[in-house]
Structure formats: C-alpha cells, structure tokens
C-alpha cells in the first residue's frame, strides 16, 4: 500500500509540472524563459540539498555523459516552457509522454535490441496518434509550433533518460545535471527572453513550486520507488500522467479537451499500453 501511495504521488507530481507551467504563463504574469530558469534553479537547489543529505557530498563530474545530460535537460526544460505558451496542460503532457516513449523505442533500436512485434506495433500507433494530433489542418487544432516545442522537450527527456540508464547514482547525477544546466539556462533566458521578461509574484511562486517540489522532490521520489517496481508496472504508471494533467487542467484551469484530443489521446496511450503491457501466455 505504501509503495502504491508513493508511486501515485510521483505521477501527480509529474502531471503537476504541466499544470503549474501552464497556469503560470496564463495567469501568473511570468514569461516562458523566466519560468524555465527559475524552475531549473529551484530544482537544482532542492536536488543538491537532497544529494548532500543522502550522500554527504555533491559530485558534479561525469565526463561526456554529463554533457549529454545537461544539454538534453536544457532542451526539455525550455521546450516544455515554450510549449505551454499555447498548449493546454493535458495536451502538452500527452505530446511529451508520447514523444518520450517513441524516443526510448528509437534508442532501443539504435542499441540493437530485439523488439517483439507488439512493441513495434504499439510504438507505431503512439507515433501515429502524435502525428494526427500535430498535423496542421486535420484532427484536433493544436498549434504546430508549440506542439513541436513540446515534442522537442519529449525528445530531450527521452535522451536524458537513455543517457542516465548507466548512472550508478541517479539522484547524484540528476542533481549535478541540474546544477550545471543553471548557468547555461541563465544565458539562454537573458539572450532570447530578456526583452520580454516578466516577473510577477504569482508566476515566480509557481515556478519555484514546480522546480523545488514537483521536479526536485518528484524526481527524488521516483528514483526511490523505481527500483521496487517491475518494469511493466513503472511504465503503466506513467500512462496516468497525461490523464491526471488533463483532469487537473479541467478542474484548475477550465480547460475542456475536444473530442479530437480525447481520441488522439486514446490512440497514443493505447499504443503505448499495447507496447509495454506484458503478453499473457
């Protein structure tokens, strides 16, 4: 029961990142670049504290793998924030989740993994659902640019996940990646968003909450429960994130998904579920 509760809390935290980001950009008086750097810095501070408390030290080195981690994290954080200038919380979470799964599938192919037919079919279905959702002039009306930004964020998080599979200490590695990404993010925010920078207290508080709590504590909690979950259970649990984000967007932001979005979500999540659920013998 305790494991179930911790897993559920983690999924809520992941979904809350979408809700908080969208909320801040719509009603919080903060721009996407400022939200991104505040979220990144707050997450870095929280993860550093957790790493020192748990390990008694903070190690930033990591060679070439650290460079990949930092750059893919930047792509995720900034693509995520830019996407929510336009996308509803649930739609963004769906695009992010679907793209991450497709990226992980591509990574398995690159590594020469032998994939069962059901996983290939499931990945193809999920990709088809994303194409339908984002294709201009057909299906749900979603901003192509902002949808592409979220797809870039999903690509970044997928690469980040693939690069981190060999990390002996995921918490320490994530803390290091966040801390090293802060100066890079600060330069990006000042260079590309400095002219339209907006900083209001409500948006600033939502960004800190997203960085320190739903990102920093959320990731730390995930790394705590993940080793105790079967791979299929962990994958299925993540299917709930877009659904929770859609529910939160409806309750907190009055976002009502269209029928097209619901159908596209069913295709994406159905494809992922078909791919990852174990086949009964």
Secondary structure topology:
Layout: H1 2-27, H2 32-55, H3 64-83, H4 89-110, H5 117-134, H6 144-163, H7 170-193, H8 201-225, H9 231-238, H10 240-253, H11 259-276
Helix pairs in contact: 1-4, 1-8, 1-10, 2-3, 2-7, 2-8, 3-6, 3-7, 4-5, 4-6, 4-10, 4-11, 5-11
Summary keywords:
mainly alpha; globular
Plain-language structure description:
The protein is an all-alpha fold. The protein has one domain. It has eleven helices and no strands. It is globular and about 45 Å long. Keywords: Membrane, Transmembrane, Transmembrane helix.
In short:
It is built from eleven helices and no strands. It has one domain (2-276).
Rounded mean pLDDT score: 86
- Tell how many strands the DSSP assignment holds: 0
Low-pLDDT runs of 5+ residues are: none
User: What global shape is seen?
Assistant: globular
Main location: membrane
Transmembrane segments: 34-54, 66-85, 91-108, 120-138, 144-163, 175-193, 199-221, 233-253, 259-277
Protein name: DMT family transporter
InterPro entries: AA-Vitamin_Transporters, EamA_dom, EmrE-like
